[in-house]
Structures are given as structure tokens and as C-alpha cells.
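ingest -> validate -> predict -> emit
validate: passed (alphabet ok, no gaps, 263 aa)
predict: started
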Amino acid sequence: MSRSLVRDYRDSLRYPEFWIYATWLEIVTKYRRSRLGLFWALMPPALYAFGVGGFFSYIQGQNPRDFIAHLGIGYIVFRFITVSLSEATTACTGHASFILDGRVRLTDYVLRVVAKAMFYLIVSLPVAAAALAVSPQFQWMGLVTLLPALLLVVLNVAWMGAIVAVIGARLPDVHELIGSILMISFLFTPILWHADQTPADTLRGAIARANPLYHMVEIVRAPLLGEPIERLTYVYLATMLVVGGLLAAWVYRRFARYVPLWV
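emit:
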């Protein structure tokens, strides 16, 4: 029997007990034995924003107060996306016992991965707030668009996560492939550099703008720092959501029923 991606996501959101509790339990068991606890979750964004950001700002001759916010926000959004997609590749195989026991609503396992990544994003908010507080570019009006922009990012992550979860159940090597692609994509995402350093009418700019993470980071960060958002970003993300969502729905309907056999 074929399954519907939209229906399964709807049911997962209507009955979130499994993936919310599983996420909470994983986080609690990971940090409860540590003396510093959740402080360790703050370390990566803090080190990137104020450590790497300060270092690269001097290398590039930029104002550290501006670049720290640029890098900090970019890294936090980038980490949310990459953690979600990387762990989604093993979402089904990691829950094989549940799937073989008859729990075949695969969106529960994708949402567990996304919820975990969202937890780390929320924990990183104090770092983001500190970085924005020292930035003279910070625009309060950017907070108005923050939630809609994050929602757009989450929706795109949701359909991509569904695809890589199904494919990852069939091809375990997809985990390594996605990890390598995401690692390379860091260089083509404006985190250590600014978007205006690669104009759209240049080859470098065209290559960078072909990267979906470029637009997913910019849609969140640019309004907060008073930077313009290119029209291409709106078109790219809207098209990606519609076309990608349709593709994910087809892949899920066609292949999700085989996952219990693959895991």
C-alpha cells in the first residue's frame, strides 16, 4: 500500500508524542552525565562566531563586530540544515526495530532528526543574540521576518529529509555522499564570505547561487543585518519548495512501502 507524504507529516504533527519524547530522551541521556551539561551545545556556535569570526575578520580586513554577526548567524542556520539532512540519511536504518514492529510512518523519524537540529538552533540563540548585539548593522525589523524565513527553511528541509531518509534506507552509502556534499557546500555558502563578493553576473556568483544553502542562509540572515535579499533568492526557494515537495511526495509514495524490506 502506497503512503502519502503530506498525510504522514500531518499525522506526525497531530500525534507528536513519539518523536518529541524520543528527541527529548536522546538529548537528556547525552548531557545529563556531563558536568557542564548544555554548555557544550553552546560551544560550537560560540567558537565559530567569536573565535573563527574574529580571526577571519582580521584576515579579510573587516570590522570584527560586523563579521562576527555575519558568520555566527550563517553558521547557526547552516548547522541546522546540515545536521538535519546528514542524520536523515540514517533515520530509517536507525529506527529499524520500530519499522519492523509496524511503525511505518517514516515522517516520525524524519521529524525526530529535524527536532533535534531545531533544539541545537534554539540553544544557539543566546550566541546569535550576543553577536547581533555587538553588530552596528543589526536591524530590529529583521526580527519580523525571522519566523517566516525559518519556516520556509524548515519546510524545504522537511521534503529533502524525506527523500534522503528513503534513499538512505536503500543505499547506506548515501550517508557518506550527503556528508561530503554538505562539507563542500560550506565553501559555496556565504558564511566565511559575503554575497556581494561574488556578483550574480560572474561565473563564481552563478556557481554560488546554484547552491540551495546559499539562499536558505541568506533569507534568514540578510534582514537581520540590513542586507538586501536578491529576487533570485525568493524565486529559488519558492520553486525549490514546490518542485522539491512534489518530487518528495512522489518518491515517498513510490518507495516508502519498501523501507521495511530494506532496513
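The CA atoms of residues 134 and 172 lie 44 Å apart.
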